[in-house]
């Protein structure tokens, strides 16, 4: 019976606070790591731009022109004499 009480005392006053201390340190390091990763991502995303500049994110591929087609649309018209 005395051994059981000794083990309970040992666990409650020595092992449990040690586990809490180690887990708290682990959680704090993980939080700092995630925050630093997020800061790095935010710095990469926010590129400072000068005022009045234009950034083009997508440029469509050029299509090969057919030999018999003209650039642009052809609109038929008639001249009207007044």
From TrEMBL:
Residues 35-53 have a biased composition (Basic and acidic residues). Keywords: Membrane, Transmembrane, Transmembrane helix. Residues 35-82 are annotated as: Disordered. The chain crosses the membrane at residues 6-27. This is DUF4834 family protein. It comes from Aquirufa regiilacus.
């Amino acid at each position: 019976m005395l051994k059981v009480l000794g083990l309970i005392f040992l666990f409650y006053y020595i092992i449990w606070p040690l586990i809490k201390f180690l887990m708290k340190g682990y959680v704090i390091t993980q939080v700092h790591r995630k925050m630093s990763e997020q800061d790095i991502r935010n710095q990469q995303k926010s590129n400072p731009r000068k005022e009045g500049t234009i950034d083009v994110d997508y440029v469509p591929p050029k299509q090969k022109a057919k030999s018999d087609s003209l650039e642009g649309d052809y609109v038929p018209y008639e001249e009207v004499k007044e």
